[in-house]
Recover the amino acids of this structure.
């Protein structure tokens, strides 16, 4: 079995008395889509925050490509190759879609301390940015400011940014939320191909998408993973049916 | 060329034309007014890098303005008295040397202030930058070697190769030249990779960090560049008045620079200059009639904040575009 890209061991995080992450262990292997499902408030986003570095775990281990990332801040983890999207889109609202992606391209090139060359005439920035936008189907919206994009388009833009970063793993927090059936369908097809580029930790409520895409599924309830397995394992898991999918699922 | 650039060039050219018309009419006082506009415009353009592009509301930029001013005053005094300054180094009356010394001194102080203040944001940042500037203000007041509360006179305006700086037009052109360089520098930074990171951080620093760019370093560098440009203007201001005093360090000065930017247009290329023009005209037109002219300026400020968010530049050039 290939070495996991992302390896989480016994992670714990409490907010006061609330155990938002309660001994979570989970890994992400090359080429896979690992879906993380669970009811609202289960601690899915909190887990992503700790992986990406925007929240500090109380204890436990997070390794990325074998390296302990706990001492690293958000920016340093992104430079290692964590391509993260936010449950609530987080973009530079005044910048166009293109400029939002260009920011990722320049970050990837490691060159933000250049003071005199105008970015809009710099094809080493604009070309990869246009490519990333094309891949998510946002080419015709390149010049629209992020603030004026629709909700679904902002989700797509976040994915384009992660692509432009050359992420080694994608951490996607409910990328399909608010996208509408056609958008979800298109994104499902896209993510299906994306796993060959880099593995995806996918948090998603859309069960059709999860069952269509996931190589493995982990179920998080009250901060604990109650089951991990293939689509069939999870579908037939009694505790999962009870805790999460409900009868008839 | 964008509308923003065109309008900016028109404003800058207008200032130059006004000085030449004043010269032709023999009205040296008006040349001095134009010089004041250029210097305050440059000081506020420096602040505009931190405040406009980076969203760093520094309420302490008087510190840098004053450091530039005192660099001019102190170096000129030592040159005048032929007393060595420190480590046996002499003073100087060469503007170019003074500018470099003032900018470096302000840059170093900005590193220190920035390292501490940039760990905070919002109101805390405003208060900490204010506190540092006030510390320097009280230090200047209690430093008798350089005039203390009374300030320091520059007996002969410092010199610049190839011109007689005492001629009002010559000195105006020096200040105008530096203003133009400052504005070009601002535009280049704004459009560069560094500027992209800085402006993205103002809009959303979570996003900046998520692509792997640490906001802190970007802001620190911007803060230092910003301080150096404001210090340069401070040195010119000292030479304009041939006098420096602790008031250059006072919070009124910091507030004035912010007001110029708000009136002219936050983050806009010629915003600070437009603000400086309005400010100096107001001071001139109403200052003679009532000593409460700043009250009327306050009304303008209020009107801008309530009805014309983009300031003068917003009215003339429309909303800012970010490509
Ligand atoms: N910063 C925080 N402070 C306190 N409680 C929090 C914080 N963030 C999340 N929580 C709580 O932790 C629990 C898990 O939240 P979250 O990770 O957002 O759940 P999910 O993404 O699975 O819906 C929720 O009960 C939420 O209210
Ligand atoms: Mg969530």
């Amino acid at each position: 079995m290939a070495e996991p890209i992302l390896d989480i061991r016994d992670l714990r995080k409490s907010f006061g008395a609330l155990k938002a992450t309660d001994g979570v262990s989970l890994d992400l292997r090359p080429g896979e889509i690992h879906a993380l499902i669970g009811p609202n408030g289960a601690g899915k986003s909190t887990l992503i925050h700790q992986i990406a570095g925007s929240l500090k775990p109380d204890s436990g281990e997070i390794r990325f490509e074998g390296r302990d990332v706990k001492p690293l801040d958000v920016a340093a983890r992104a430079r290692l190759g964590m391509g993260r999207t936010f449950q609530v889109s987080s973009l530079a609202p005044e910048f166009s879609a293109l400029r939002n992606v260009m920011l990722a391209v320049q970050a990837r090139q490691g060159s933000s301390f250049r003071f005199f060359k105008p970015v809009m005439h710099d094809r080493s920035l604009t070309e990869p940015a246009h490519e990333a936008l094309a891949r998510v189907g946002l080419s015709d919206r390149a010049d629209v400011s992020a603030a004026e994009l629709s909700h679904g388009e902002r989700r797509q833009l976040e994915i384009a940014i992660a692509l432009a970063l050359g992420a080694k793993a994608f951490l996607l927090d409910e990328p399909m939320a608010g996208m509408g059936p056609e958008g979800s369908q298109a994104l499902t097809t896209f993510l299906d191909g994306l796993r060959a580029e880099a593995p995806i930790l996918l948090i998603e409520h859309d069960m059709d998408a999860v069952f269509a895409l996931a190589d493995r599924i982990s179920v998080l309830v009250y901060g604990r993973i109650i089951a991990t397995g293939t689509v069939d394992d999870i579908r037939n898991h009694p505790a999962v049916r009870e805790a999460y999918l409900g009868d008839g699922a | 060329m964008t509308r923003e650039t065109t309008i900016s060039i028109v404003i800058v050219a207008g200032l130059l034309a006004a000085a030449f018309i004043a010269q032709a009419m023999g009205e040296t006082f008006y040349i001095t007014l134009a010089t004041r506009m250029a210097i305050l415009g440059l000081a506020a353009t420096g602040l505009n890098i931190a405040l406009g592009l980076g969203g760093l509301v520094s309420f302490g930029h008087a510190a840098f303005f004053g450091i530039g001013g005192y660099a001019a005053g102190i170096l000129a005094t030592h040159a005048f008295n032929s007393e060595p300054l420190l480590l046996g180094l002499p003073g100087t009356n060469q503007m170019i040397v003074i500018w470099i010394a003032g900018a470096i001194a302000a840059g170093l102080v900005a590193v220190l202030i920035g390292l501490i203040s940039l760990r905070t944001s919002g109101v805390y940042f405003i208060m900490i930058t204010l506190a540092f500037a006030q510390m320097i203000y009280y230090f200047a007041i209690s430093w008798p070697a350089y005039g203390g509360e009374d300030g320091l006179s520059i007996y002969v305006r410092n010199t610049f190769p190839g011109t007689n700086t005492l001629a009002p037009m010559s000195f105006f052109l020096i200040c105008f030249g530096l203003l133009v360089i400052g504005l070009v520098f601002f535009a280049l930074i704004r459009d560069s990779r560094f500027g992209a990171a800085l402006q993205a951080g103002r809009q959303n620093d979570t996003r900046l960090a998520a692509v792997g760019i640490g906001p802190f370093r970007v802001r620190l560098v911007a803060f230092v560049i910003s301080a150096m440009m404001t210090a340069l203007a401070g040195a010119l201001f000292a030479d304009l008045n041939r006098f420096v005093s602790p008031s250059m360090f006072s919070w009124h000065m910091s507030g004035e620079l912010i007001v110029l930017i708000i009136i002219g247009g936050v983050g806009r290329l010629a915003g600070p200059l437009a603000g400086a023009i309005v400010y100096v005209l107001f001071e001139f037109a109403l200052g003679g009639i009532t000593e409460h002219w700043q009250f009327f300026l306050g009304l303008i400020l209020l009107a801008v904040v309530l009805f014309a968010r983009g300031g003068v530049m917003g009215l003339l050039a429309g909303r800012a575009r970010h490509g």
